[in-house]
Known about the structure:
The chain is an alpha/beta fold. The protein has helices at residues 12-21, 48-57, 60-69, 79-84, 175-186, and strands spanning 2-6, 25-29, 41-43, 74-77, 85-88, 99-104, 115-121, 124-130, 135-139, 144-149, 152-158, 161-164.
Amino acid sequence: MKIGVLALQGDFREHMDILKRLxxxxxxxxxxxxxxxxxxxxxxxxxxxxxGNLLVKNGLKIExxxxxxxxxxIFGSCAGAILLSKKIKGSTQPHLNFIDVExxxxxxxxQQESFETTLEVFDKPFHSIFIRSPRIESTGKKVExxxxxxxxxxxxxQKNILICTFHPELTDDTRIHxxxxxxxxxxx
Length: 188
Ligand code: GLN
């Protein structure tokens, strides 16, 4: 199975390494042609404004909007989660509006306030790294909350879209990527 990793900016290499460890072939996605044979797409952490502007410029935003209508699986971590959200608090930056959440950028403060913690994910501890992370402030009825930190959702899913506000690609725990691969293999 081939899985795309959006490689416009951010920590896409770390996601590619995890995919390789899980035995799937990562494909760098920079143009809409690169999306042709992939069964799903990961949008990495990075700078959501930069990635969003490049999505528009490269024609990928329109292409992903078409694919989302056909339930194409997409997983966004951190900046990726921001880009997939319906509403970004106080911002009009380009984004994809694929999951019914309102999200606030840099909600835990600046780089110095980045932190690591242990969350409960699928009934087991998950070492979680938050780097200038956003906070999910509200979720629509169709959004399933899969993990929380201080009573805010940090891992959530709506149908074909999975988001997390931390960086599972920076740890050895591959369970969130495994869930995403299941979503991809179930998609026709
Ligand atoms: N603060 C970044 C943004 O708003 C996201 C940070 C990250 O992806 N680690 O885009």
